């Protein structure tokens, strides 16, 4: 059990965060974030 981590954070998100390396970036956004146009510029895979 992870005592200091909020239960609101999903196991999938914890896995992605654990697999991130130096220079990796993650975007937390709402439904109105222009992911399609920004994704091409950032070269970011959508999870």
TrEMBL record:
Catalyses which reaction(s): beta-D-ribopyranose = beta-D-ribofuranose; alpha-L-fucose = beta-L-fucose
Keywords in alphabetical order: Isomerase
Listed Pfam families: RbsD_FucU
Recorded superkingdom: Bacteria
Molecular function as annotated in GO: D-ribose pyranase activity; fucose binding; L-fucose mutarotase activity
Alphabetical list of InterPro entries matching this protein: RbsD-like_sf, RbsD/FucU_mutarotase, RbsD_FucU
GO biological process, one term: fucose metabolic process
EC number: 5.1.3.-
Protein name per the record: L-fucose mutarotase
Organism: Kluyvera cryocrescens
Chain's gene name: fucU
